[in-house]
Amino acid sequence: MELGFLFISIVKIGAILAYIYALLWVLGQKQWWIKAVGLLVAFAVVQLALSLKFGSGENPFQILNSFDQGLLFQACTITMVSLGLNLIYGFNGQFSLGQWGFYGIGAYCAADITYRWFNGDARGLIVVSVGTILGGLGLILVNRLVKRLRGIPVLSAFTLYLLVSVVAAAVAVFAGRLLNPLIAPLMGSLAEPGPLNSPAVRQIVFFLSVILAGIFSAEVSFLFGLPVLQLGSDYFGIATLGFSIVINTLMVNSDTILPFPEMKGGRGMIGIPKLTTWFWAFFFLLVVVVIMRNLIRSTTGRAIMSVREDETAAKAMGIDVAGSKLLAFVAGSFFAGIGGAVYAHYIGFLSPGTFSFLAGFNPLIIVVFGGLGSMTGTIAASFGWIFFLEGLLRVLLGQLGTDAPTWRFVLYPITLLLLMLIRPQGLLGTVEWGFLKGEKRKARVTVPKS
Amino acid sequence: MDTETKAQDNSLLRVQGLTKFFGGLCAVKDFDLAIEPGELVGLIGPNGAGKTTVFNLITGLYQTSGGEILFNGEALLGLEPFEITRLGIARTFQNIRLFPNLSVMDNVRIAYHPHAGYNLADSVFRTPRYQTKERELDEQARDFLAIFKLEGIQQELAKNLPYGEQRRVEIARALACSPRLLLLDEPAAGMNPREIVQLMELIHFIRDRFKLTILLIEHQMRVVMGICERITVMDFGEVIARGTPKEIQNNPKVIEAYLGKGSAHVA
């Protein structure tokens, strides 16, 4: 039985890697209809594997059972966070330990929106949407202003940005208080959902909650990154570490210092609607991958990489280095926020313990393991991490004894050490598969104009 | 209007009273320089004279402790380095600062970033504007590499190139910024006599082809005497002499401060 299980698990992991390769290959084809069909097939294959049940009775055979589904969703969300970190660290060269903080912000933010909505309270959605939109507009306006008036010191600009954000937040809270009673009758309650709590509307709210959570994380990262990215890479790393710890502390005190009694502070937030399905996980993962790939394979991406290579030379080439760092940081945090939102709605509860800073090293290990500067490496390493390590190894070790699974925390670092000795550039180095490589352009034979 | 004010109006670069202190150490003191469009000017002096510091001050990498810098009549003080580059000043570095893990093609394409013609939204959503502008950028970069005969190595990573080629790529990359003024910091460093001749030909070629004004720091006297029209000599942060190559060669102060390395070989 054990050998059979081992064999099936290895086949599963191989299938996953082949699936990733095939999906990236299909997306890299030129004709749009090939891409469309490929995406449909990719989605359908996994969906069928999850839904089909052969036989009846207590234990029907499933290609991918519910345990696998959990692993799948975990893999998707950790991929989004890790891709964000790869953008910040692998492509932009800024060592950040703050991804986990933004993951947590995204998770709690989205969870709060849907939890409240399901309980007949629209304030979550109203406040966050008004806040992020107004805040975003305000930040953009201040940005234009700062650029026009040259020579404003960074801290003064930061104060302006902060002021605008606080004003936007205040307006948002006011809007929530004002508008919520107006639509409360349509919302109903948890026991008796009203028309605004129909399944269709709930899906829309879920979609909005994920996007808004991402934007909210992005705006927080903008405010945090503006003064802090100026510090050299090492000091920046420590600052992001501090940020993660602050966020974690805020989570523990979400019902005391912060006015969110439903988050229940250190006891953890429960009752989050489990709205994440394979469709949504697939969708948001693709969104993150496509945005990141389109960003990297463009002039902005090249500018971001040049900052990693040599900041001084980049400045001399006309690159706004500070701006590039901020862009990479904000984009990476956006991805982490989305990942957190999808995660929260898969697992149904959130505990500050999940977002401890120690756990924040996981994406870092994944990114280094897969290859800094390789999106494919991050994706493969994320799925490998979850399915192989958390999935297979945990079960394997479990069969050796009840305490044995804890040994995997010894095996992970040893594996990483060995890999760094044998292949420091990571599993895939800077290699990319299929669509992540970017568009191919035919070299023209040119006659140089004299 | 007298000739001096006329020259003031036409100068491409005008530096006056430039001073830089690093704590208590005075690296540059009261440095003056005026360069007319199309000139090829040399800046020489012993090691530690402050020549690269002057470059760094002009390009905004260092903040000045005094003096002013005017480029095309526009004051450069307080501008960020990337803003100064976008105004039309490009430079190379003493110890070659290419982007090591990027290809030659990508190194050159970076220079086109400020004028790419499309923004972030275009990139993310792959709009038609992105498609056309990126293709144009690509062709422009390829044509550009062909001018320098670098198209054969365009996919090579910069860190894998031999030293001479790295130099050439760095100069090409600086030129891809479409500068009006090019600052070359010791371009002949580490080159043998044959490579030096090729370099001198290259500098003449780019000056004519791209209608450039060039300010050159160099220790190799063959290069300085061979191509510079005017020379400014620095020592201990101050200007000690100015003139044509012939005048500088015979200047006793210069000879005293700086015995040129190849001066005996210059015809």
Search tags:
heterodimer; A: 450 residues; mainly alpha; 15 helices; 70% helix; globular; disordered C terminus; B: 267 residues; alpha/beta; 6-stranded mixed sheet; 4-stranded antiparallel sheet
In short, what is this structure?
Chain A contains 15 helices and no strands. With 450 residues, chain A is mainly α. In chain A, helix 1 (2-27) packs antiparallel against helix 14 (375-398) and helix 4 packs across helix 5.
Question: Describe it for me?
Answer:
The complex is a heterodimer of chains A (450) and B (267). With 450 residues, chain A is an all-alpha fold. Chain A is globular and about 65 Å long. The model of chain A is unreliable at 446-450 (pLDDT under 50). Chain A is built from 15 helices and no strands. With 267 residues, chain B is α/β, with parallel strands linked by helices. Chain B is built from eleven helices and ten strands. Chain B is globular, with a radius of gyration of 19 Å. Helix content of chain B is 39%, strand content 22%. The longest helix of chain B is centred in the middle third of the chain and has 20 residues, at 128-147. At the A-B interface, helix 9, helix 10 and helix 11 of A face helix 3, helix 4, helix 5 and helix 6 of B.
